[in-house]
Design a protein that fits this description.
There is one protein chain. Helices cover 74% and strands 0% of the residues. By secondary structure, the chain is mainly alpha-helical.
Length: 492
């Protein structure tokens, strides 16, 4: 009896194989943007990512892999983002609930009294930086205080896209530098770097980037702030807020709860949804008239109306009708349903990126770059460039942090370079650039919660742009590039 023929071993991808999906993705994304403009985020961009994933699957099948392997890779990509999906749903519920309870209106009202337009941008940047350093989460910072600041910008007559850039810049100061940050911990662990050593190395790129960002926002504030709206318009907006809501410090309790839970390291999705539920419970006590006006069901008993209002605000968002467009745009937001297009975008990007990673297409693209990186500066530039590229094609900052840390670790050890050089390059290339890409999970999230298109706020994310540039300067000048006294331990 003859032996059964063994299935052919899959072929490794060629460089041409690896390039095909990227070219297809670039063409489809460009076409979506040209044809649909800002509306590309409402479906065309998601479709482009799914078609690019299908093309990648065809390349993989051509090389001898099975459809079951392709399906398993797609499932792995989706499973890796389940946590982010729950956070997105929770933030959608939070925005609706905070509007219902008067938390966001109170933040905006106090902000209009305190923050002058001339220093609005640097104040927004520093406030978000302090909060993110304390809680270690860029998403939580942007999805809470960031929402209020962007809403406030429209009311005081300064640029909402610039404010969004200041919010994101500040939020990513903590994402890079907080010892509580998940990506900072991940970059340190994967490169075998002690956490404090990693943070000290980060300081050499973060401090100059922070100073440059603060200077940029100060210049924009001085140039743009004095062109704000008149005191009469601001008074009418404040009046509209106070007519709809009771403006009181008690409405800030849901935000206090969220900060406390974040500091206690409660998982983000649980902390955010707990704050949202607390806000819906607080709303009938503080904003009874606003709640009943929102639910618009006079036949319901009052307790049932309160339950319906909280349920509706978390599901589909809060709606206001004051007659003032800026106020209505600020308050008519939120709800888990508002996050569905963003989740669709993230799922498409993660499936595409997972196929590229699982079947060696990403590694095939990186290998030629590593072979050409002969100097220390070129090696660090390769890490930063690869991390940015992974943010573009894989659609997730964790992939952009994990893969370069794994791929380039041996090269740094062989050249006698301290692992902190790699951890800094990975963080500056992979973490802070993620919100600059519309189809990346971070870019999609920031655009969804702040209500500003990624391409609009991107030029003003000064900290996010400056950080990788400073790291490149460090690499090519040799300043603060540390070397080992002995062999570097493998990643833990």
């Amino acid at each position: 009896m003859q032996d059964e023929a063994k299935p052919a071993k899959p072929r490794p991808p060629s460089l041409f194989d690896a390039l095909i999906p990227l070219v297809v993705l670039a063409v489809l994304i460009l076409g979506a943007i040209l044809l649909f403009g800002d509306a590309a985020m409402d479906g065309p961009l998601q479709l482009a990512l799914i078609f690019a994933a299908l093309v990648t699957a065809l390349v993989v099948l051509k090389n001898g892999h099975t459809w079951d392997e392709v399906a398993e890779a797609g499932r792995e990509g989706v499973s890796s983002v389940v946590g982010a999906i729950f956070i997105l749903f929770a933030v959608g519920a939070l925005i609706g609930a905070w509007n219902l309870a008067g938390t966001i209106p109170t933040l905006v009202s106090y902000g209009m009294d305190i923050i002058h337009p001339d220093w609005f941008y640097p104040a927004a940047f520093l406030l978000c930086a302090m909060i993110s350093l304390g809680i270690g989460s860029s998403w939580t910072t942007a999805g809470t205080i960031g929402v209020g600041l962007v809403g406030l910008s429209a009311l005081v007559g300064v640029s909402a896209p610039i404010t969004a850039g200041a919010v994101i810049s500040g939020a990513y100061v903590g994402e890079k530098m907080s010892p509580l940050s998940e990506t900072a911990i991940l970059a340190a662990q994967l490169t075998g770097t002690e956490m404090q050593t990693h943070l000290r190395a980060q300081l050499w790129s973060s401090a100059p980037a922070l100073a440059l960002a603060l200077l940029g926002f100060a210049i924009l504030g001085a140039a743009d702030g004095t062109a704000g709206v008149s005191e009469t318009v601001i008074d009418s907006e404040l009046s509209a807020l106070s007519e709809l809501f009771a403006i009181t410090p008690w409405t800030l309790l849901p935000m206090v709860l969220l900060v406390v839970l974040s500091i206690l390291r409660v998982p983000p999705s649980l902390a955010i949804i707990a704050s949202a539920i607390f806000a819906t419970l607080l709303a009938p006590l503080l904003q009874a008239e606003a709640v009943l006006r929102f639910v618009a069901s006079p036949d319901l008993p009052m307790p049932i109306a309160f339950i319906k209002a909280g349920w509706q605000a978390m599901a589909t968002g809060f709606e206001a009708s004051t007659g003032l467009e800026q106020v209505d745009n600020l308050l008519s937001r939120g709800g888990m349903a508002s996050m569905l297009p963003t989740i669709w975008l993230i799922l498409g990007a993660l499936v595409f990126g997972s196929l590229l990673e699982r079947f060696g297409l990403l590694l095939r693209l990186v290998e030629p770059l590593l072979e050409r990186a002969r100097t220390t500066g070129a090696l660090i530039a390769t890490v930063v460039g690869s991390a940015i590229g992974l943010n573009l094609v894989a659609g997730d900052q964790y992939v952009a942090v994990v893969l370069p840390a794994r791929i380039f670790g041996s090269a740094f050890r062989e050249r006698g370079l301290a692992s902190s050089n790699l951890s800094r390059a990975v963080a500056d290339g992979g973490s802070v650039t993620s919100p600059l890409i519309p189809w990346n999970s971070c870019g999609a999230y920031m655009s969804a919660v702040l209500g500003i298109a990624t391409v609009d706020y991107l030029p003003f994310c000064f900290f996010n742009i400056a950080s990788p540039l400073v790291t490149l300067a460090i690499g090519f000048t040799g300043w603060q590039v540390l070397r080992n006294d002995g062999p570097q331990p493998a990643s833990r």
